[in-house]
Amino acid sequence: MSLLARKVVASGLALVLAVAGCAGRDGAAPPSFRSCDEVACTGELNGVKYQIRLPQVWNGTLLLYAHEFRAAGPFPPAFARPRTDAPVAGDGRTVNALLEAGYALAGTTRDAGGYALREGVEAGRNLYWFFHETVGVPERTYVWGESLGGVVSELLAEQEDWVDGALPMCAALAGTNANFDLALDVAFAFKTLLYPEMKLTGYRSDAEARAVWTQVRRRATAALSGGPDQVGRLMLVSALGNQTWKSRDHDDATIGSRNDAGLDVLFEVMGYATIVRYDLEQRVFGNPSSNTGARYDERVSATERQDMEFVDPGGLTRHLAELARAPRVTADAAARRRADLLGDPTGALRVPTLTLHTGYDAAAIVANETVFANRALRSTGRTGDLMQLSTTPPARYTGSGAPYGAGHCNFTADERVGAVTSLNRWVRTGARPSLTEVAIALRGTSKGSGFDPLFAPGPWPSG
Description:
Elements: H1 3-11, E1 42-45, E2 48-53, E3 61-66, H2 92-100, E4 104-108, H3 117-134, E5 140-146, H4 148-159, E6 165-169, H5 176-194, H6 206-224, H7 228-240, H8 255-284, H9 302-311, H10 315-325, H11 333-341, E7 353-358, H12 368-379, E8 386-391, H13 413-429, H14 435-443
Parallel strand pairs: 3-4, 3-5, 5-6, 6-7, 7-8
Antiparallel strand pairs: 1-2, 2-4
Helix pairs in contact: 2-13, 3-4, 5-7, 5-8, 6-8, 7-8, 7-9, 7-10, 8-11, 13-14
C-alpha cells in the first residue's frame, strides 16, 4: 500500500496513544511476524552489527534506530573506549516501554566509528530490508536517532519511500560544514586568546588531536583560576559559538556556576574541534572549515558583555581586537564540497517529522533546528509536516545535574517514549498533535518534563 493510501486509512482511526496501538491496521488482528527463535535477531549485515527486539504482540510499527556519534577511538573527557553494541533506543527504560506498547525495535552500528554519515544511512537501509524479508512486513516504519544518528534518520526519511515518520533528536540538522565552522570559531578564539601555538587543522594523527584537546583542558582550567584578564578571555571564547551558559552539570544561577558550565561546554565543543575534526578531515581529504567571514563582535550578547565588563573592565574590547587582527582560516574548497556530500539534510520533508532538542546543547546547538525549519520552508513549503520540540532544565540544578533539558541528548525515558507516542499519533490519525497532547505524552509517568512550548531556538550565529 502506498504512503498516501496508508495516510488515508490512518485518518479514519480513532485518536489513540502509542501504548494502546497493539492491534493491526483498522483494528484487524495483529500482524504476524517471525520470532527471535525463528530468525537471527542479532548478528552482522555486511560486517555491521545489528539488533532486533520484538514485542509479544506486534502493533505493526517498526522503529528503526540510529545511535549517537561514536569516536573511532577513546573520546574525552574520560577517554573511555567507545561502545560497540547496536542499540535499539537511547536507554533501557525506553526499550522496555516501547516493547510493552507493541513496537518492533531495530538498530545497527556503523561499519566505522567517527563521522560515518554515509555508512549510517546504508546500514539503516540494509537493516530495514532484512527485517522486511525475514521478520515481517511493517505497516509503518519510523526512523529515529540521536546526535549523528538523528542526522542519519532524517537522511533516510528524505531518501526512502518506506519511511512513514521521522524523529531526529539532538541532531546537527544544519549540516556538517555549518557545525564544523562553528567548532572552528571556538577553537580559533581559544588559540588566539589563550593557546597561541595550538594547531587548528591538519592533525597528523588521532593521538595528536587528543593531545591538543588535553592541553586545551589544562590551559582553560588554569585560566579560570587566573586573574580577571584570563577569565575574561575564557568567557569570550565560550560565548563565540553561540554556546550556552548551562551544561548538564552546572546551571547559570551564579557567575561561578556559569563559568563552570562554560568550561563544560568548551571541553565538549573542543572534542569535536580536534578529535572529530581529525576524523572528518581524513574522510574529505583536507580541511572543510572556514571562518573568513565570521564577525565575532556581533556574537556577544548584552548579558555576556555586562558579565565580561564586570569581571574584566575594558577587556572585551581588547580581546575582540585581538580576534579581528588574527589570520583567518580558509577551507579547502574540494574538501568542503566532499563534506557536504557526506549527507546534509535538505529539509525536503516527505513524511510527518518531529524533532526533539535540549535547549542547552553544546555539541549540536539548538539553532540547528532554526536552520532546518528554514530549509524545509524553502525546499517544499511543507512546514505543516514539521513539529519541533524543545526541552529546558529546572532553574537550579548545580550539585545534582540537570535531569533533562541541558546537555547533549539529555532526555528522560518518558520524553523519548512520549516523542514516539506523539509521532505515532500524528502518522496514524493524520492530525498534527496539539501542544497539550505533546506535553502530556512527554511527561509520561514521571514527576516532570522539560518540554517548553515557549522556548525559541534562535538564529544561527551571525557572520
